[in-house]
Amino acid sequence: MAAASQLTILSPKPRGLHGCRASSNSNAAPFTNLKKQVLGVAAGILAATAVAAATPLEAAATRIEYYATVSEPSCELNFVKSGLGYCDVVVGSGEEVPFAELINVHYTARFADGIVFDSTFKRGRPLTMRLGVGKVIKGLDQGIMGGGGVPPMHVGGKRKLQIPPNLAYGPEPAGCFSGDCNIPANATLVYDVNFVNVYSGNRK
């Protein structure tokens, strides 16, 4: 009996529809209103689905475009004997970068012509790296940790680095996959580095 009642609710009998005339709307109105409501709900669901599907793609595209075109303010580079150029956009006031311990940095890396080839901002999280033990290119070791006329960075600091090929990847291309290389041979690289913090796991 309950099933019959449910069936009646879902599929109401078209009472009076078979005998209605074009000039009589009293019996047709409930069915017409129900039809409008069903169509309205269906249209709402389709619209919500379209918005939900489009929004993440549009947001991601906007974020990538932003970080691919915006850099730290320019500053006058100081060049040291190794050929590395550096300048501080913001001098950090926190802890000095430690030797051989993990630190977290945000960076955007460009070629000399300004084209971005890598950025932690696109990945949405800083990079954890260890300095002074040959785990990164020499230009980042010297440019962040200091030495050879370059002062060490402090937490909160933002520094621009211009890294010559001999302190980057040298005469060999890098970042190669299936014959395509992200970084050409003898490339000069420009990094905007933000020293976020010292990795907390060092203290464990």
Explain this structure.
This protein has 204 residues and is α+β, with helices and mostly antiparallel strands. Helix content is 31%, strand content 25%. It contains four helices and nine strands; from the N terminus they run H-H-E-E-E-E-H-E-H-E-E-E-E. Strands 1, 2, 3, 4, 5, 6 and 9 form a seven-stranded antiparallel sheet that branches. Strands 7-8 form a two-stranded antiparallel ribbon. It is globular and about 40 Å long.
User: What is the distance, rounded to the nearest whole angstrom, between the alpha carbons of the first and last residues?
Assistant: 68 Å
Structural class of the secondary elements?
A: alpha+beta
How many extended strands? 9
Radius of gyration: 31 Å
Element-level helix/strand string: HHEEEEHEHEEEE
Largest sheet: 7 strands, antiparallel
User: Beta-strand percentage?
Assistant: 15-25%
Helix percent band: 25-40%
Shape: globular
Mean pLDDT: 76
- Are there runs of 5+ residues with pLDDT below 50, and where? 1-26, 41-66
Tally of alpha and pi helices:
4
Could you list some keywords that capture this structure?
two-stranded antiparallel ribbon; globular; 204 residues; disordered N terminus; single chain; 7-stranded antiparallel beta sheet; alpha+beta
